[in-house]
Design goal:
Elements: E1 2-6, H1 16-30, E2 34-38, E3 45-48, E4 51-57, H2 63-70, E5 74-77, H3 82-93, E6 99-101, H4 106-113, H5 119-130, E7 135-138, H6 141-149, E8 155-157, E9 180-184, H7 194-197, E10 204-208, H8 214-220, E11 225-228, H9 232-241, E12 244-247, H10 256-263, E13 268-270, H11 276-279, E14 286-288, H12 292-299, H13 304-311, H14 316-325
Parallel strand pairs: 1-2, 1-5, 5-6, 6-7, 7-8, 9-10, 9-12, 10-11, 12-13, 13-14
Antiparallel strand pairs: 3-4
């Protein structure tokens, strides 16, 4: 089958959306499908104001011809950015079906940056984008219930996985002498990183990642080790060297870094909010508490072997098969032959 994925998030960006799509594309190709990904790399783009790591495509007129030239059997819109909207418009005008996904809590992210904008505006934006989608993929049942409460429809479950070939414990790697509390992710307001950096913890705090707040926080917290991005084996080693992964975000839809850390045998400390509640097993793979310091210290006592065993059950192959099951026209009829959709 010929599968086209349209995403405003792609390399060289480093985030959970890109990680998920990379794994998905690799698994789909491994299953024998031909997969094409339309991303900012295929177009002219400019840095997003206030967040230069995110490119904004401006020659959007080329999106439609790119879809037509590939002649896909199905189309998946992974993001609600300019590329996603351009593809949506082209498909809608021709009455063609597509699936879409909600990877991030976009309304909460916008509200975190501009608190004067009502949360309801962000959800109105999501409803508008996803309304004509035949299948709107979300990561957990909790999110499906929550988004349904905001008026989103045709929500379907697509669970994420972890690369256990890369992320796994190593018996020969000794644990840290002093506790190491690790954060992995974007350094941006919506990630609530300061909730970790303000804690009085034994040992040291390490931060892997980058983002618009890095320079500010690096100056404010000189004792914290800001390591920049880590990839592949270097990232896996950062997880293995940590005593606890701290996940301070209250707005993530899932949090792939938690699965990656667990697969390396590293327990997680987090707030008891969606994302951690869906990934972690309280007292086994992580500790969730409103007192984040208490969660960090309690997580030090968890069994690393049990963490790795739990994470090993979630593969990307299973995730890719679930993705396929949610796509329109998996019976072989090309997506471009669909009857026109009626927008609710």
């Amino acid at each position: 089958m010929r599968i086209l994925i349209v995403s405003d998030a792609w390399l060289p960006q480093v985030n959970g959306v890109v990680t998920s799509l990379q794994a998905l594309v690799g698994e789909l190709r491994g299953l024998g499908h031909r997969v094409e990904l339309l991303s900012p790399q295929d177009f002219r783009a400019r840095p997003c104001p206030t967040y230069p790591e995110i490119p904004l495509v401006w020659d959007l007129w080329r999106v439609g011809p790119a879809i037509r030239d590939f002649q896909p059997d199905c189309v998946h819109l992974a993001t609600e950015g300019p590329l996603g909207w351009a593809a949506r418009r082209w498909l809608r005008r021709r009455g063609l079906a597509f699936s879409s996904a909600i990877h991030t809590r976009f309304p909460e992210y916008i509200h975190a940056r501009w608190p004067w904008l009502p949360l309801s505006w962000g959800y109105a934006y999501l409803r508008a984008f996803h309304r004509p989608s035949q299948s709107v993929l979300v990561t957990t049942e909790r999110l499906r219930t929550e988004f349904a409460g905001w008026g989103l429809q045709r929500l379907a479950l697509w669970r994420k996985g972890v690369d256990t070939g890369l992320f796994h414990p190593r018996a020969q790697s000794p644990g840290p002498v002093n506790p190491v509390f690790l954060y992995v992710g974007r350094i941006a307001p919506e990630k609530n990183l300061q909730a970790l950096l303000d804690l009085d913890l034994p040992g040291e705090i390490r931060v892997v990642g980058d983002g618009p707040q890095r320079e500010e926080l690096q100056l404010r917290y000189p004792r914290v080790k800001f390591l920049g991005y880590r990839h592949g084996e270097a990232l896996a080693q950062a997880y293995r060297q940590a005593s606890v992964l701290v996940f301070p975000s209250r707005t993530d839809t899932y949090g792939l870094v938690m699965l990656e850390a667990l697969a390396c045998g590293t327990p997680v400390a987090a707030f008891p909010v969606p994302g951690p509640l869906d990934v972690l097993e309280q007292g086994v793979t992580g500790v969730m508490a409103e007192d984040l310091r208490e969660a960090c210290l309690a997580a030090l006592q968890l069994n690393r072997t049990r963490c790795a065993e739990r994470a090993a059950r979630q593969s990307w192959r299973v995730s890719a098969l679930e993705f396929l099951a949610r796509q329109p026209l998996l019976d072989g009829a090309p997506c471009l032959r669909l009857a026109p959709l009626v927008e609710a």
